[in-house]
Amino acid sequence: MSTQQTNTDRRTTRQALTRDRIVEAAIALVDEEGPDALTMRAVAERLGAGTMSLYRHVPGREELLDLVLAAMAAEVPVTPLTGDWRADLAAIARDVRVGLVRRPHLTVLLTSRAGRGLAELPMLDRTLAVLRAAGFGRRGAVMANHALGNYVAGAALWEAVGLAGETGQARAERRQAAADAIARLPTGQFPGLDWVGPKLVAGTVDERFEAGLAFLLDGFEVSLARRKAGA
């Protein structure tokens, strides 16, 4: 191979390296190994490129993490609003849950990198608009948003890696093992567990999520009723 051809091949490789390709490789790395595994060198190895060549497109690791977060957040579904605040908040919660379960590390990125970029702002603005229309004041809307976000993030994390963090037969076996362990406990040692028995692990992840969401939205309704009564 001639030197001229080699130089041409290298130029072609450099031209093929784009910010989009770098972000795609970074997302794949985060999906597989988590945010801590993301380094410029690791991404470069995935692309078959030199580490320094990445800096022509992305200033550094922190900026690359911001781009990864933005790309992941953009994949969260967005259900059209209806004007019914309860239905709209439920739809937002379900949409975010889908996005977080699809990419479990998105939960960590959203919480650890809040305020660095614009990735989470469309979701936040959308939720605050619904809460405002429902009748919440400024502080109440912020607190309600925190409550909703914390619930969805916790539920999604539990679904992805907790007791529900398996699928199909494996999930059923884990749940049965938990039920069996509770059943073997001495009667009277944990009266609350004696009372609920096998129902502690009953219900699908969808049923559990919807039940918790309904409890939360019921609380919002009570808070709004109190606010209106005191107006």
Largest sheet: none
What would the average pLDDT be, to the nearest integer? 87
| Secondary structure category | mainly alpha
Radius of gyration based on Cα positions: 23 Å
Instruction: Indicate the low-confidence ranges by residue numbers.
Output: 5-15
Question: How many β-strand stretches?
Answer: 0
Overall shape: it is flat
Q: Tally the helices.
A: 12
Share in helix: over 70%
Element-by-element helix/strand order: HHHHHHHHHHHH
Distance between the termini: 82 Å
Strand content: under 5%
List keywords for this structure.
single chain, 231 residues, mainly alpha
Structural account:
There is one protein chain. By secondary structure, this protein is mostly helical. Helix content is 72%, strand content 0%. The protein is built from twelve helices and no strands. Helix 2 (19-33) crosses helix 3 and helix 2 (19-33) packs across helix 5. It is flat, with a radius of gyration of 23 Å. 19% of the residues are buried.
Show the helix and strand layout.
Layout: H1 3-16, H2 19-33, H3 40-47, H4 51-54, H5 61-74, H6 85-102, H7 105-112, H8 121-134, H9 138-161, H10 168-183, H11 191-196, H12 205-229
Helix pairs in contact: 2-3, 2-5, 6-8, 6-9, 8-9, 9-12
